[in-house]
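User: quick one, fold this
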Amino acid sequence: MITNSQSQRGFTLIELLIAMLLGLVLILACTSVYSSLKSTLSTTRSLSEAQESLRGAFNLITRSVRQSDNISVSTLNGFGELLVSYNNISAGDQVVSCLGNTRINGTSDRFYSNGAGLFCDDGIGNQLIALNVENFTLQAIGTEGVNVSIKVTGMPASLGTDGITFTVALRQKILARITAP
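Assistant:
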């Protein structure tokens, strides 16, 4: 039995190839969007971790320096080392270390980096306080303050090669100077 070719219906080879090409273009577009979103999510996560490390380090260093009456800046293994001393704590004053322990006269907090993290040692314990610290540099401002520069992995290049720099003053010394006759 012979059938009429006009009564057969279906897609031609050209139509199938065009449909496959359109499908391939659609899959490539979806893959590109997915890859871009994944990259953006990774960058956002990295920035969030950097911001969290910087915020924690900033809060702990500023609290310790503001409560203290003496600081010492040095270098340890190519990274900054900050020694914060407490010598004039009055009775009834609540002074806490970088790790939350109560301080008494003659105690100190030490902040230092090993190139992978920022640590605090309050004489009672030693603890990592910031992750992925690439650079930790310090510059004393006389005896009344310190410039602190911290660079954390994942920070945008627009923040420079030194990272974030902030200045902290010794509250006790400034108040004593202001109120001195």
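User: anything notable?
Assistant: DSSP finds two helices and eight strands in the chain.
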